[in-house]
Design goal:
- This protein has helices at 18-28, 42-53, 59-80, 95-106, 124-129, 137-148; strands spanning 6-12, 33-36, 83-88, 110-115, 132-134.
- The protein is an alpha/beta fold.
- The chain has a domain at 6-40 and 80-148: Rossmann fold.
- A 5-stranded parallel beta sheet has the order 2-1-3-4-5, sandwiched between helices.
- Helix 1 (18-28) links the parallel strand 1 (6-12) and strand 2 (33-36).
- The longest helix is centred in the middle third of the chain and has 22 residues, at 59-80.
- The protein is globular and about 50 Å long.
Length: 149
């Protein structure tokens, strides 16, 4: 078993319990992992720029401020990660998750995508950059257990 803690960044949709299922599964298996993630409070993430730096008349500039501040965290944590898990949920388009996957691929990070079969075609390029494509969070835990043991 690996004696070093691996850093695993959990990117993607925020509307289900997939992160908790991975973190709980890793804890149950006593895996030497440290999880990081973006800010998952949707309102806090979207509005951080204007709350900190001041209001904007146009949504474009409001979003630009927030995304730039969020990118400070995201780029640091992805850069430090050993593995990046990118979840694409069924309900919303996660453009930010696709960007995270591209950023991780450009850095040469090991990527595990997590999505339903219905998105296979739309995510074919992202999946091609990934080391594995999982359908369930528990499969991600099994992958981590395998590579760490």
């Amino acid at each position: 078993m690996s004696t070093q803690n691996w850093k695993v960044y959990l990117s993607g949709e925020i509307h289900s319990d997939w992160r908790e299922r991975i973190m709980n599964g890793a804890k149950e298996k006593n895996l030497p992992v440290e999880f990081t993630m973006p800010v998952t409070d949707h309102d806090a993430s979207d509005m951080c720029g204007v709350r900190i730096l001041g209001e904007e008349e146009k949504n474009f500039w409001r979003d630009r401020k927030g995304s730039a501040i969020n990118a400070i965290r995201t780029s640091k944590l992805i850069s430090d990660a050993d593995v990046v898990v990118v979840r694409f949920g069924p309900k919303y388009k996660q453009w930010n998750a696709a960007f995270d996957a591209g950023f991780a691929a450009a850095l040469g990070k090991s990527i595990i995508t997590l999505h339903d079969e219905e998105h296979d075609h739309a995510l074919k390029e992202v999946d091609a950059a990934a080391k594995a494509t999982a359908r369930q969070p528990e499969q991600v835990v099994e992958i981590l257990e395998y590579v760490l043991n």
